[in-house]
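Re: the request from the purification team.
They wanted to know what the chain is likely to look like in 3D before they choose a buffer screen. I agreed to run a prediction and write the result into the notebook, where they can find it.
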Amino acid sequence: MSQLSLSRLLCVRRPHIGLRIFLERDNYLSGSFMSGFCRRWRFAPMPEFGSAGALPPKADGTGFSANGSKIHRMRLFPCLALLSLMGLVACQAVALTQTPTASPSPLPSSTPLATPSATLRPPSPTPEPLLLEGRVTAPLNIRRDPSTTAEVLATLSRGETVQADLQSQDGQWYRIRHAGAPEGFGWVSARYLELTLPASAPTGMTWGRVTQRLNVRSGPGTSFESLGVLETQSPVLLTGKNRTASWLCIQYPFGTKGSGWVAAQYVKADDLNTLPTLDESGRPLRLETPEAEAQLNVPTPTLAPAPEDGDSASSPAVRFRFSPQESLLFVYSGQVSSPEGDPEDWLEFIPFSSLPGRPAFLQISLECEGNSAVLVEFWQDGIPRPETSTLTCENSFRQITFSPGQIYQIRIQALAADTLRWTAYRLKLKNLP
């Protein structure tokens, strides 16, 4: 090994002391260096090789002569031991100096775990609107909104058919589909539109009709909030009943869950026993046995007085004029009761004749429901017409002549009774051309 390579391995650098160690070719330590080194560290001086008292080398060059001083060899051993120790330290120092410090390998950046987000449930599918076929019974305005002051969009002729999908919250208007209306919808008066019930209903439901004007409530009882009103003859889709079947749940778009409750006694429907039994929130109830639900019968309705509507001979509920341009058919539904409630209704009409001097001919029919009957009278100038002009639930059809262009009133009166008697009716007048 060369002196340079050895010096790199056995070299200690200090600020003011330099130490270099060379290994001679014949493996002897330099005497001058050793002498100075030992003197510096207070060891006995070593004679220079070749001077007096020096230890001559063997002839073969492998060590000191056998006749050399034993003391000299003993003095040399501590120096050699110390030198070996210094060499080891130097090696470690050089190794530390020249070996590059390994920079710590950066830890692989961990990809943050995505925070799991809540799985959003898809919105409940909005059911397709139930379209009911309706027939116009009189010339009818289609308005932008359900109000008599709203803009008129178009006019329907008597006999036209339309599709209705919604009844207003007050029950007096239907929303119909019409191509000429904005967004394809407009509003018409419910009074002049006869809706036909579909032949079938969705599974577990049934169709019915309201027999009198009544409230739709948020729960099965009069203590629950009123959500809106249904007019007489309004169609309803029944979805369930309460435990006693005294209240029926219906589809009602103005309810918080798209449903509402109506009193069963004011709804006419087929076989209410097929409806599921619901709690106040509209959730199905499980009865103790299936037979219990099958045997649950609708109780006999408790009659209620007809609501007061405030009409009179001078302020009739409806004024109607027959004409070929408008309509020759008039239909009206209402209810009366006695001795409580509204005892009578008043209507007004003007008949038409296509030939001058010829009287107007009207065909009049009456349909009744309830535990009593009504009397229909025709008045003119505050005086009732002859008895032949009257109509009852039993005598429900008649053709009567009137003077064209004259104003007549119709009085629908409940029969007098000591206990509550209530009747819902439907009056139809057709002016023959």
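For the purification team: Residues 70 and 298 are 136 Å apart (CA to CA).
Please add any questions underneath this entry.
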